[in-house]
Amino acid sequence: MSKIRIGIAQINPIVGDITTNKNKIIDIYNDAETNNSDILVFPELSLTGYPPEDLLLKPEFIKENINALNDIVNNSKDTVGIVGFADYDGVDIYNSAAVFQNKKIIYIYHKIYLPNYGVFDENRYFKPGKEYSVFTYNNIKIGVNICEDIWYPNGPGYHQSLTGNAQIIINMSSSPYEVEKENIREKMLSTRAGDYGVYLVYSNLTGGQDELVFDGNSMVFAPSGELVTELPAFEENLSFVDINVGEVFRKRLHDPKGRKNINNSENIQIKEYTATIKEHQKNYIKLSSDNNYKKPVDPLELPYKALVTGVGDYVRKNGFNKVLIGLSGGIDSSLTAAIAVDALGSENVVGISMPSRFTSSGTKSDAEKLANNLGIEFYEIPIENTFNTILNELTPFFKDKPWDITEENMQARIRGLILMSFSNKFNYMVLTTGNKSELSMGYCTIYGDMVGGFNVLKDVLKTKVFQLSEFVNKFHKKEIIPVSIIKRPPSAELRENQKDEDSLPKYEILDEILKLYVEKDKSFQEIIEYGFDKDVVIRIIKTVDRNEYKRRQGAPGIKITTRAFGKDRRMPITNKFID
Amino acid sequence: MSKIRIGIAQINPIVGDITTNKNKIIDIYNDAETNNSDILVFPELSLTGYPPEDLLLKPEFIKENINALNDIVNNSKDTVGIVGFADYDGVDIYNSAAVFQNKKIIYIYHKIYLPNYGVFDENRYFKPGKEYSVFTYNNIKIGVNICEDIWYPNGPGYHQSLTGNAQIIINMSSSPYEVEKENIREKMLSTRAGDYGVYLVYSNLTGGQDELVFDGNSMVFAPSGELVTELPAFEENLSFVDINVGEVFRKRLHDPKGRKNINNSENIQIKEYTATIKEHQKNYIKLSSDNNYKKPVDPLELPYKALVTGVGDYVRKNGFNKVLIGLSGGIDSSLTAAIAVDALGSENVVGISMPSRFTSSGTKSDAEKLANNLGIEFYEIPIENTFNTILNELTPFFKDKPWDITEENMQARIRGLILMSFSNKFNYMVLTTGNKSELSMGYCTIYGDMVGGFNVLKDVLKTKVFQLSEFVNKFHKKEIIPVSIIKRPPSAELRENQKDEDSLPKYEILDEILKLYVEKDKSFQEIIEYGFDKDVVIRIIKTVDRNEYKRRQGAPGIKITTRAFGKDRRMPITNKFID
């Protein structure tokens, strides 16, 4: 009687490819219809891909997405579909959910809370919605809202449940992955289900889009706050869950907090809509959830999968097959290559080692060993002749100035030139291998080792590079990244006996300070209160600020922390502030 | 009796350098006090510099700017100072104007309309103000508002004038320059003065900050809409204007539209404040405006000055003295060098010519001639030996693949390497010389000719490069850029007999289509309706979209059009939409 089957379509759309996204949505809809799903929910803006950025300012883009929605609606049968798209009212556009059935739109919900912080710019595009709505299906009341809406304790879900008497809240999201966000998100959603006394269905996007990666991991919660089922992380998935909303009434009788809550929604009007009951309900067969996914135990598994998904989608969605990596025998390029192989297959990864007079025999043989372990195509191209030629050409102009960073950068830039020549000749995308610690400190050569179309480790601190490298070997249950690479003290090998620690604080200290300064935006005073050396902290802060110009010309890369370089952290280049 | 002297302090602050900005504000305040100014108004957020971007998310930054404001207030005497700063109410921050006198803040105005489009992200930081206010000085009522506020016909100025009876509206702005914006802005301000029946004082920022350049050109309008006086463009300036507000009463009696306007501000409360009359008013002497600036007649003068200001401020504010430019003998590098010399002086510009086997004797000698005309340091470093060495090293790996873009890019990248080596050795900032047409089409080599810290012509289409080059010679009344450079058909000279028009449509056509597609965001269908060839248009649109990745790694450069690449136009790299 008060049972309902809800399908969650956790998809990986392509930004701007509205036709492909539409066809995917229709195929999945037809599948859900066949599976007797009463309702089928897609993620936020799944028809356009997320985030569409300034494509949303193109009238043709808005029109095409509305036409595609109409095609989806015209294909619909009994199952109630809920699809994210950009609605247009003749003046403004809205981040919207269309609720439809039997070739008709029942109603359209407009997102009320628009995020405009971190990587989000939704105020740039959308007008916030004003209508709080629920719809009825088989005597069950359901409230639909979108992403940010559910992050506000007294947001739409609150009013839909406690004023509109919704028994089920459906939230469609495109919520980007960050390390450990899955826990924060699960706690929050569980709390909302309990506070509102509802079943909460959370449908999230999956896949990579430029610097963002979406983890999917859609979830369903009971009114007790208990997690009923969850969908896999970083995979497309269609799952069904059967809900008996009788539990909502019981919970509300046993736990009067929702009813006793001082209701701040007295003036809120709830608009009510009705959907037709699906025929199959007459012969309802229990299915329950068909999904056995559990979140991984190893805290490195999700970040690793985020990197694999991010680079794989960036390369594929931009029409490339193969990637090229400069293998130095160091840990950053080794981890980048291992991730690339997991993302694209060993047949699509090419490694080039480019030794110089400063390359030790250990790193040189390690580069080759890594390539063998990964089973990738591998070339060795020494840079010595080119380096000598350019030195001969330029030293007359340098007069009596001593060897310095100039000659170090030259080597990195010759390597960049070689990689880009292969990229041009064979249409490989170069992956650049710098990590977040290096990029923070500008310990990298612009137009040298920073060369490349995508930077896999852009948001990964060096200490985490070590952890992830060990994880790779554990995950594959064999030595992929040679232990000698993991054990060797990091060196750029651009001069005799160079070590990273000659120029940088120890990574254990550097990374802790970078976490505080970059990711938590703590001030100098606050950081030294953690007990760090004053001079070290001031040096790091100044160096991070001064190198904004270098990062601004760096390759895009995958955000996995609370604050990545890029549109997440919009610092001026010209900036004299010292925190 | 109802006369008042208003000072406009059109300053060029440095983002984040709150102490320097504060000292500048205090010095000018003291000057205005000496000049018996009743009121002195600075531009929007002039204490922090504009735009401070994510510095606004740092608590220490907000605290430091409030402390600096207190210092300014504590220095104040009879003159009413109006300074832009970021206010904090314990929860939110506001884009604000402090109105102060005799060591006390009279009141603080919070900007009501926050721009969040184009290059602006103010919703990311600020809460909008709610209070409409006027203050009285010598029986004259004055309304203060901030930048975007005045762009709304029924914004704060409307209510301050027609409900609050303000006779003078003061708008403090940080309004970035765009070609011909000065005319749009002047028309709008003139219309507002007439609609509101007030004297309108507009105080705008000047100087460059990263990709933005502010033109100053502050103005004062009479209630008739007539321009009373204007301050110079692209210069710091302190000017005084004496206003007799008797004219306001006359205008309002003669023109009843303001009074008859159906008043949509009935529920608007106007908060009233009072300032003390300055002693010198007792011996008031007529000064009127001391300024004779007139907008330039030549439409190229302001864009040229914008480029000069933009590069000069970027280089100086980032602590560099000298710049380095690769001089090809082509028009882009020639114009860049001429602008750099006007911005920094010939003693601070260094040119390097890097000929190859494909460099014609004409371009080679033109590069030298240009350097002589500019009186700059000049070197010639052929790339032939290095090019041959790298070809020998790589061709074995390229097997039987023919010469292609790879070998062309190699030459550009060797030149980039040479420029960066000089940059490292002598601490010169490299200026990259690409123009907007090239960057649109990706007709430039990433890590090659795109190398550099700043891109002067980033937002200048090729046809405008020609116009500005002719302007340079006219402006200096002698041949700076050799006519042979202006006349020669553009070529990258990366292969035998190469011309730009082998790869690109004629610039006259290309630039018109780029204006429509990039600057006006027209769709394919709309563009062909202008009569352009369908195949040419589709090729250009696809090429622009596909090269987003290249621009993303390009150097920052000066926005001078309505839509520049960068934060003004936020397109995804991964993007399958075809307009």
Which spans of chain A of ≥5 residues are poorly predicted at pLDDT below 50? Answer: 282-287
Helix coverage percent of residues of chain A? 25-40%
CATH structural architecture of the largest domain in chain A = 4-Layer Sandwich
Task: Give the overall form of chain A.
Answer: elongated
**Most extensive interface between two protein chains, with residue counts:** A-B, 79 and 79 residues
At the fourth level of CATH, the homologous superfamily of the largest domain in chain A is Carbon-nitrogen hydrolase
Give the amount of beta strand of chain A, in percent.
Answer: 15-25%
Report on this model:
The structure is a homodimer of 579-residue chains. With 579 residues, chain A is of the alpha/beta class. Chain A is elongated, with a radius of gyration of 27 Å. In chain A, helix 1 packs parallel to helix 2 and helix 8 runs parallel beside helix 9. Chain A is built from 19 helices and 20 strands. A seven-stranded mixed sheet of chain A has the order 13-12-9-8-7-6-15, with helices on one face. A six-stranded mixed sheet of chain A has the order 5-4-3-2-1-14, covered by helices on one side. In chain A, strands 18-17-16-19-20 form a five-stranded parallel sheet, with helices on both faces. Helices cover 37% and strands 19% of the residues of chain A. Chain A has two domains: 281 residues, Nitrilase/N-carbamoyl-D-aminoacid amidohydrolase (4-Layer Sandwich); 252 residues, Rossmann fold (3-Layer(aba) Sandwich). About 1% of the residues of chain A have low confidence. At the A-B interface, helix 2, helix 7, helix 10 and helix 11 of A face helix 2, helix 7, helix 10 and helix 11 of B.
